[in-house]
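Why does this matter for the project? Reviewers at the last site visit asked to see concrete outputs rather than summary tables. In response, this paragraph embeds two records directly. Each consists of the residue sequence and, immediately after it, the corresponding structure tokens. Nothing has been edited or filtered.
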Amino acid sequence: MRILILTNFYPKIGNITSGIFVVKRLVEYKKFDVSFDTIPVYMKDDFFLKLLRKILKLQSTESLEKFENIKFRKIDVKINLLKKILEKTGFLNFSKEFSKQLEKQINLKSYDIIHAHGMSLNLPAGYIAKLISEKYDIPFFVTLHGGDVNYNMAKNKKNRTIYIETFENTSKVIFVSNALLEKAKSLGYSGKNAIVIPNGYDPEIFKPMDKKQVRKELGIYKKEYKYVGFVGNLIPVKRADKLPEIFENISKNYDKVMFLIVGDGYLKEKIEKEMKEKSLEYIFTGRVSQGSVAKWMNAMDIMVLPSRNEGWPCVVKEAQACGTCVVGSSNGGIPEAIGYKEYIVEEGENFEERFANKVVEILKNGSDSKNLIENTREFTWNRIVENEIEIYIKIMEDN
């Protein structure tokens, strides 16, 4: 079995953990002896776009060539500044150009299956997979992770029919949560070829450690303190802009709390300014490796995830595998990932205050870490990939 992986999610220069949920899948594929090539789907910037990114301090879209022993084969398709300005009306042309370059640079006939991750607004991997599938009669899959449906498909009415046509013509559309599937159906997708397979976690990295010892190793140990943290990008969809307000409400109702913020994003300066103004005790780690994330998660008593939307947040099962309780909003796939109604805070009026109250309640009463750990067993990357490969085999047999 030989698979062509097309992905809108991949490790980038300056952000190596971008698309980690795709990378971890591919690491497991190797254990199952599955042959594959991975193509990060993006267009290279020309000189002026590179200069513009540098001036505006924007993150590079360029893929790493190798990460965690997975090779990412770059397709040489460049985009100039004028095309970038016009891209919202031209993604079909970009997709066709990318497909043409794929044909020139690799032997597409050598693949049994095409699996696309994502439907980005400007260069959707799933649509490119559809173009190749139609020309070479190769079955294709699309996995949708969240923003591709919740934002790209939902907000871009002009191109929604392209999304629906792509989904309807795949062998399978894989959604990472039931909530995401229902959202796609509400936007016009039939759901006839849908299946739900969530993201997983790496049990070799995310496992319980002694909290006191980890806090000492990280240099943050304080006697009688509780530790509440956040792990993720500091962006509005994660409701990172409301972290200072949530943390302030917690500190008003519980003494001696240290707040840990693991991640980075353009809201960092604003958040840090507000944390200082509110005289909160906090630590920003910036972006760190997965191994370090596991340590910080183990240092927490509670991890918060107040996101305004999510597909399937990997951080939930990662934290739970460490024995750390996660409190989350009722949005998207968060309730499915958490799996406990008592740790969910419904969206609505006074959300930040009610969210903080829930955290304080758990700080006072505690949580069952053994039960949390036990309920993550079926979500290892090995189990997730096993399910995907079973689908590959069935489709190949049917064809």
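We now turn to the second protein, recorded in exactly the same manner.
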Amino acid sequence: MATEIAAGRAAELHRIVELACARIGLDASGAELIKYTVNAVYRLPREQVVVRVASDRSGVSRGQRVVTVARWLQTRGAPIATLLDGDQPLSVDGYTVTFWRELLRRTDWSAADLATPLHHLHALELDSDDRTALPLWDPFSTARERLAHADTSALARADIRWLTEQWDEAEQGYRDVRARLRTGIIHGDPHTGNLLNRPDGAIVLCDLDESGIGPLAYDLVPQAVGATRFHRQHFYREFVQAYGSDVRDDSAWPTLSRIRELIMVTSVLPDLQHRPTVAVQHAHRLATLKAGRHGEPWDLYT
């Protein structure tokens, strides 16, 4: 089920998809919203193309970051979704748009299905030129940007201040542990919702917004947090076996898990006021964080 969006915003996003498609000669007829968590994601049934639309102020820089990483990964044969050829991202009336080949979506993924492409990414070697050209994992700057422009009709000023303080503390905590963490190419948001199947059966990762050079251990954190927050303990045990490591044994786990939970609250701030069902779950997540209830379950954003 696609995200519930206020009618006016839904019409605006559809208009942006049509304009962007017209610019590069794609048929937007029947464009269908797949999901809207951080980006609004549409499929074009007549083109077998997926369109990702970012509306927040960091969209342009984030879109360029995604394109840079995707093209580098494609040259390395990495298991990722395929970016369309041509100049990307597009800027359309303040929105940032990227285009991708449509691949098969499934819901029956196993832990090994997720661990396999992660192993591939984490094994990629980086030379000095790569480390200069590729972006660094930096959730802190993204969070500050989103909080600075958060709509106070959707999030109270006191909550904005609280989240800002939490992010400042999390960044300092990360600086304290960063030197002992092994770095490489990370996906940044690996979970089964970001897996796709190529026609040849290969399993690939999509949604590269947070991808770049970062601590490899962080890519294991989403599943470890999900074990508690989303009742996925059994899946996590299988993931640990498939990947071969339990990030909860890492001394950086408290810091990395805190960052993950803050991301899961801050990432949906753009356009929150236009997404009522997302706003309800966001309020619950924020309340549990503020109360220190780290074992309380969350629901997925829908």
